[in-house]
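Good morning C.,

I know you're traveling, so I'll keep this short. The sequence:
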Amino acid sequence: MAIGVKENPRTRFEVLIRDFITYVSVEKGLAANSLFAYESDLQKYAAYLTAKKIMNIAEVNRTHITQLLFHEKNRKQAATSIARLLVAIKLFHRFLYAEGLIKIDVTSLMDSPKLWKNLPDFLSLQEVEKLIDVPDIRQITGIRDRAILELLYATGMRVSELVGLKTLDVNLEAGFLKCLGKGGKERIIPLGRKAKEAVERYMRSDVFRRYSGEPLFFGLKRATGLTRQAVWQMIGKYAKQAGIQKHITPHTLRHSFATHLLERGADLRIVQELLGHADISTTQIYTHVTRDRLKSIHHQYHPRA
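The tokens, ready to paste straight into the viewer:
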């Protein structure tokens, strides 16, 4: 595969990318979605190199690739997207090296950016209380919305789990609910006093009785209903009314749930079980949050910090 000196570098990169995609398609038998993802990531890589006036793939060094990854991180791209980009680049360079198109594979010693995960945003206890207090429980929708906020914070449920929660899975007498998580895995989560009070109020309300024949706890049909998007919008509205400047999503309450438990000494394995994480390494990111918070408090209050 000759690369002409006078060719446009973007065109040269596109030829190489096309050959790589053909290779992984034929030799590796990858699915169409995987091929599309690789091609998309490598087009981004080629555009970045072209913008940096790199004329030949052989001119690339590890610094160029690292700068691209940091560029993506600064653009607030998800850690999984950045890691996937690096995987695509590494496979691309491995292919070029095997084909004799480059003399050195500069990516061979590069690790995936496991430590580049963005630490999850979370709310302080005061911010959580301000948010939960916003819904007006003199109104029917306020009663329901207060119950939703209390449940999200008290249980750490994902918004999809909340929307899919069944009435039969809520046991107020015992003070727990059964949650169906990813992969159909069930877990039992305690409710807590405040959440239990909010749920009891909701179950006595007209809005709950109106949909009592439906299996879903928040009982709204798809046509009118409680979707994940509706919960996102509702939380954003209440956050604005509470004067909270942070960007808040339902997952922010899940992060706050985990962070506050660990700050108060909860065992990491227990938090893993409550969150429904299959791998404890997923839960461990919250230890970075609490460690950073401890350092911040130490720096703020210690006289010799």
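Safe travels,
E.
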